[in-house]
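Protocol step 4 of 6: structure prediction from sequence.
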Amino acid sequence: MDDLLSEFLTETNENLSVLDVELVKLEQNPNDPGLLSNIFRLVHTIKGTCGFLGLPRLESVAHAAENVLGRFRDGELTVSAYAVSLILESLDTIKGILSVLEKTEAEPAGTDEDLINRLNAMAEGRELPKAGAGAAAAPAAPEPPAEPPAAANDPEQLFEPVRAVPVAVEPPRPPEVVQTREVAPITEAPPPAPVPEPQHRAEAADAGPAAAADKGGESAVAQQTIRVNVDLLENLMTMVSELVLTRNQLLQILRSQKESEFAAPLQRLNHVTSELQEGVMKTRMQPIGNAWAKLPRLVRDLAHELHKKIDLQMLGAETELDRQVLELIKDPLTHMVRNSGDHGLEGPAERVAKGKPEAGRVTLNAYHEGGHIIIEISDDGRGLNLEAIKRKALQNGMVTEAELAGMSDQQIQQFIMKPGFSTAAKVTSVSGRGVGMDVVKTNIEKIGGTIEMKSLEGRGTTFTIKIPLTLAIVSALIVECGGERFAIPQISVVELVRAADDSEHKIERINGSPVLRLRNRLLPLVSLQRLLKLGHQDEDKRENFIVVTQVGNYTFGIIVDRVFDTEEIVVKPVAPILRNIELFSGNTILGDGSVIMILDPNGIATASGTMTVQDTSIATTEVAKQTRREDDKMALLIFSAGAGSPKAVPLSLVARLEDVDLNQVELSNGEPVVQYRGKLMPLVPIDANWSIVRDKRQPVVVFADGDRSMGLVVDEIVDIVEDKLAVELGTERPGFLGSAIIAGKATDVIDAGFYLTRAFKDWFGNGRDGAFEEERQHRILLVDDSPFFRNLLTPMLSVSGYDVTAVESGDEAMALQESGEQFDVIISDIEMPGMSGLEFAEAVRASARWANVPLVALSSHATPRDLDRGRQAGFNDYVAKFDRDALLFTLQQTLAEKGAA
């Protein structure tokens, strides 16, 4: 293909993708001159380039569309839904002609007279009916949406504004063109000074490709990029992958030699290879907005087809991921957005009857988290109908009534991921065939991702997709089992645990299934040796290593014999003969030349038999009761400060232990501070007689929360021990909770909050913790996503006589409800990711066991409006997060009222 024609196709496709988005926005904001100007300029660019290249059919359609847009821009016509639909139809016609042009390098035969006549009629203030049978149709151009009835026979009403479907979107970057990819040039030159763009580019002469590019509004940044064929990038990535393998082999040889003259150059090679790998990976990274570019148009057309009003919000469009992954998630995302618009959102009348806004909201949000990308697709619609799902599951023979009775709501909701499952009353052009969510789930898991779902009936549904940033080179943990080595992607590994008879962690069995007691919870285990049939199974009679793995919201352990190092591995596809084995996601070559299989945690969780990714069936009531805290030991930091007994504070509150040079201590407002990690950190001594002695070093216990930190000045760090925090003697001394026996010695337990508020008065609020309650057996459930607040409030409540269970999410709390746990009071944060405090309160009130348990809300906001919102959701009381005295008083009052009732 001629280079000039190839460049034209690339640029025009990009402009058309931008026009799709801009026209939908214009329908929302018909009086926005900036939008009109940009749309006109892009269409004018397409028309001018067509004329230069001798493409009369394309030029005729673009020219007619430009005439209409010119009348809009000059204020002679009013933008309407019908007008936008006609312009979109002309763009579809141009796309169809371009498609043929790309394949044959010539325009297709035919004419677009009908479309051009209607465009010209609109430009002249008239309307022509759409041609019937026999009219020449543009290739691949769909029918436009139905014309407004008011305009059918009344010319005066033809161009009156029609209330548009709101589709609020963030402007994405120009979408990817499959054939090419823009990358920064190898040699960097200083960008030229920006040239002011003329206000009216329409008047610029059509002088050729240069003029056309100028009218396309290229920025200085765009002028500093070049187009590279995607195949070239793929080949480059393949060569880098081979280079990484060779680097790994050389480093393996180097490790076997204690001294070698090749050590220095090999380390340099290692460094250069890593930088090259990172650079090539960046050329493959593209904003996820490229995958979203067609969604505004899709949602707009879907809203017209379904007679709904849909507000599409796209957040994090600039988040980048590998183009290979991007291509693989385009179709699943499109399907899920269509599902949200069709199944999820109610019609305008139904929404108004429920007290919701007329326009339903569909939100896409993308962000990076821990080496992978998170994509959330949520709507504020009707949510999943559990009763309908139950009926359909029984009807399809997927489950028995007895099994259904023992399933949680979340487990029932997972049926929508099964092949052929649909609760739609009838099959439509949009959905209802039972083909979709199972394919979405399969495609996402094929690229090493997971999909989670959360739905509340009447409030909406949220799907959370977690996928790796790239599929080519990944970090993996190398393990051994039954004499064979395997790789586990690091993205799924949470931690490693050694299990043996001489350690605190031992493999136990409950109902024949191996489990591990880890931090007061039972962790279900999968024996890799048994699963892969690698010889004799004796994992419970010798030393083992447990690879704690997370798949979605489900955590389990994989039992292996040995654990080696982590290594950057190049992922090779599984051989065709092994592709039906779901336990493997690929293979790789190690530094010593060995070929090993890459394990797929999704497949392991599914194939293990006793568990599924979304079904924590092992957490039965009997097992859950055995996970009750057999001991309440916690790690405690022991130190000395001033005269008297040793002092203790929960280690979980401590961020770091530092040794501060007192020469670096300064005074701010008369108080000692030190420059610490780019900020001023207040120093608060426990000993009132402490003074700054220059040329000495001082032990400091650092507490940190967010970007604030405080240094507690102590005399000496003594030890870190694990023991129960059972305060036996209270005290009236400021800064102390009381005394306890820790590690066999009488120890003063300090009140960390007291010293934190001396550093920052607004950290938690002033005041001393409340006195002991006479009743010490009340059980409290504390739900807060912040580890700092959990670790701060748990000891304070324990010291005040409460039996406290702390969890980090509403989902984890509801799992306790399902397992039969009972509490006297539930304290929950309001602002939490995932299930918010308000959603958690509604779930508690809808549950069988906790419906009548008093709920106390914690929040950093405590306005009357917040109070009303919390009580409407089901909270009995509302306490400011920083007011610990108010929390203790509220607990006393709540328990007193409950006792009286």
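Step 5 (inspection) to follow. Confidence is low (pLDDT under 50) at residues 132-206, 208-223, 610-631, 765-776.
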